[in-house]
Amino acid sequence: MQEVTENKEFTPNIVAFCCNWCSYAGADLAGSSRMTYPANVKIIRVPCSCRVNPTFILKAYQQGADGVIICGCHPGDCHYVTGNYYTRRRIALLFSMLNYMGIEKERTRLEWVSAAEGQKFSAVMNDFVKTITELGENKRLTDLRVKEGE
Amino acid sequence: MQRIGVFICWCGSNIAATVDVKRVAETIKSEPGVVFAENYQYMCSENGQQLIKQAIREHNLTGIVVGACSPRMHEVTFRKAAEEAGLNPYMVEIANIREHCSWIHKDMEEATEKAVILVRTAIAKVKLNAPLTAGESPVTKRALVIGGGIAGIQAALDIAEAGFKVDIVEKNATIGGRMAQLDKTFPTLDCSACILTPKMVDCAQHENIDILSYSEVEDVKGFVGNFHVKIRRKARYVDETKCTGCKLCMEKCPSKKGLNEFNMNLNTRTAIHIPFAQAIPNVAVIDSTQCLKFKTGKCGICQKFCEVGAIDFTQQDTFVERQYGAIVVATGFKPIALDNFNEFGYADNKDVITSLELERLMNAAGPTNGVLLRPSDGQHPHVVTFIQCVGSRDTSGCGKPYCSKICCMYTAKHAMMIREKYPDTEVHVFYIDVRTPGKNYDEFHRRAVEQYGVDYIKGMVGKVYNENGKLMVQGANLIDNEQVTIESDLVVLATAIEPEPSVRKVATLLTASIDTNNFLTESHAKLRPVESPTAGVYLAGVCQGPKDIPETVSQASACAAKVIGLLVKDKLKTNPCVAMPDEMMCNGCSQCANVCAYGAITYLDKEFRIGGGKTEIRRVASVNPAVCQGCGACTVTCPSGAMDLKGFSSKQIMSEVDAICKK
Fold first, then answer.
1. Considering only residues 520 to 559 of chain B, which have any Cβ-Cβ distance to chain A shorter than 8 Å?
2. Does the model's ipTM exceed the 0.85 cut?
3. Which of A84, A120, B243, B493 fits as disulfide partner to B283, beta carbons 3.0 to 4.6 Å?
4. Which pTM does this prediction carry?
5. Which of A9, A15, A23, A32 should be substituted to probe chain B, the one whose Cβ sees the most B Cβ atoms within 10 Å?
6. CA-based nearest residue to B492, from B393, B392, B359, B355
7. What is the pLDDT of residues B490-544, one digit of tens each?
8. B321: number of Cβ within 10 Å
9. How confident is the model at residue B57 (pLDDT cuts 50, 70, 90)?
10. pLDDT tens digit sequence for B240-291
11. Cβ–Cβ below 8 Å for A51 and B631
12. Which residue of chain B is at minimal alpha-carbon distance from A75?
């Protein structure tokens, strides 16, 4: 077990990729229902979770993101019929690669959130932020040249 | 040089109460490329849009970012405004600082900081936007209605009246749905069949309506304006074109012990049958699981007696494939199974029935010819106890968390009808709350109490048990704060309703969103209540949420209006955010075509110059923009990185990631 040192000062930076049809709408519903989650989650809208190239995730870690979460429609409910099945396979491969690179598995998460699941969206985000806060800062892949300014 | 304009909306106090909008605009002004930043109370208002248009013209803006509500709300509004000011509508990006920021955060400092980042992210994206032009696709002027209940019937009639062809696909042998099973309807006590069957006949006779009964949707391809649907026509073993509905076969059929689904299995029917007297089409169907010909190979009596030679035991399922411009889903509901509710003794006592079963027991065409008799011994019940909210508003996980909405009213109706027909019968109703909003609804419920003397008891029932042939209903009376046990002859459970299970398959085929209770999700809960988020798919009736007949009919007509609005158009604008290969990078490996769910990618042999005046022919991917739906699956699959998605290009998303991560 890795020792968890809680750092009150640390607020993680989290990138969330949300598909337009389910999860982004779920996030909207969380918003209009005033279901709170921490401000360090920032959402990028993509048409389908299958638009998320694993390189986007690596890029996020390289640029200093502490966690990346990909949200799509539930399997079988994809607006584009089969898109999220591709996502599921790609992310599974990415997990093993991240593991090889020494990036904790928990930093990346794949969740299915439908347009009607505002509550789930908020719960997932709260939980994810908690997980990442406990994990601490992501330093493994941070490109120092980028941090110091081009 | 890019000239970006940024517009921050207050949305009254919706955004401004938690986000310091002025500070956001001030901070953003110094961003590279931003030449104009302003804030305003309501950007979506006439004045707000004017402000945007003016800024585009005065500052020669090449792209704009609106920090406002969700793009699902007003992206179209702002794109239109931009277009009117001469800017390509796809040079607009929305930073969602309401649903994703001000509404979910309480701390102003935190929310403002996040809003700045979200706006910066949108600026990073818009800088890489390219002007796009929407293409056009033709509209097939024919609609499909899935489900032939009152919702489907009303929608089909309205669409057909406007002059468009409509097909109703109904999985049962007749249209009519649940409403055909009802005896009376609230709040007027109209006879259900009397108001429904004329509409069924209208459907059958309308020149624009084609009823495909005993059929199911098997496959759906295509998109709004151009759905390609494959329909399975199940073998009914009776030639629909020959059968006259004379019912001679039903008289002669020796296999008489099939459960009559139409009468909620309260009596039996023959293997060959017409579901009910007013069935449309009035054509028999053979239940092959019950028919002796199918079970033993012997019999075929119906075939001998059928004067028109309509019986055909060799019939097979057939498929029809048709094109549609729009699809209405009206798949309806069923009462939930009561397996989880042993306390009410439904499985053990014949005299514990559901409300829909009571409906059949009260109906003149029902198993008792409309005389209220107990299923167990055929006696008149003298004490009838109703239990409401059986499986509704149940958070324990046994039932459904939602209110089924119709039970309070139909229970009042049942209680009233029993007291009206049999004034010597005692009627008790256990309820948690009585919910009767609606025109003349509460008056209706009061009539049941005041005029008909129905005994309403506020409280829940703990159990129903049999004691010496009597049903003991044990419950709480919360008003008098005491336990009560009512000796009853008949117990009626106001059972929760749930979407017809086949809706799952329909939703998957249509890629329509569905919620955890299997209700189809509407595009916007308040403003687009009959449209599915999937363009060209509309929702009518209980498949979208619990509702009664008046509401269902209104929703069905609303669907029809939407469908007509779509079908009158000759052409639809298509989404220009489609995949596009870089032909110089493409090596023709065909992986993109393999993942494309729409078959939008084909291969072309193209001639390329390779220097020195020479050319070579290479196989490259080619995307059909009319068919591509813009999911982006191909962009990630492409091993050479040749495929990209317009409007959501890899560069754009990467720059968004950068903007979010920048500290």
1. 521, 533-534
2. yes
3. B243
4. 0.86
5. A32
6. B355
7. 999 999 999 999 999 999 999 888 888 999 999 888 888 999 988 899 999 999 9
8. 11
9. very high
10. 999 999 999 999 999 999 999 999 999 999 999 999 999 999 999 999 999 9
11. yes
12. B508
The ranges assigned to domains in chain A are 14-147
CA distance to partner chain A, nearest, from residue B116 (Å): 11
Does any CB of chain A come closer than 8 Å to the CB of residue B72? yes
Tell how strand B579-581 and strand B643-645 pair up: antiparallel
Give B423 to chain A, closest Cα distance, Å: 47
Of B174, B143, B172, B173, give the one whose Cα is nearest residue B156: B143
Rounded CA separation B219/B217 (Å): 6
What domains sit in chain B, N to C, each tagged with a CATH number?
Answer: 4-126 (3.40.50), 142-226+319-332+503-567 (3.50.50.60), 248-305 (no CATH), 338-498 (3.50.50.60), 579-646 (3.30.70.3270)
Domain A14-147, architecture per CATH:
3-Layer(aba) Sandwich (3.40)
Interface residue B396 vs chain A (CB under 8 A): no
Residues 6+ apart with CB under 8 A from B185: B179, B191, B192, B195, B413, B549
The CA distance from B367 to B267, in Å, is 6
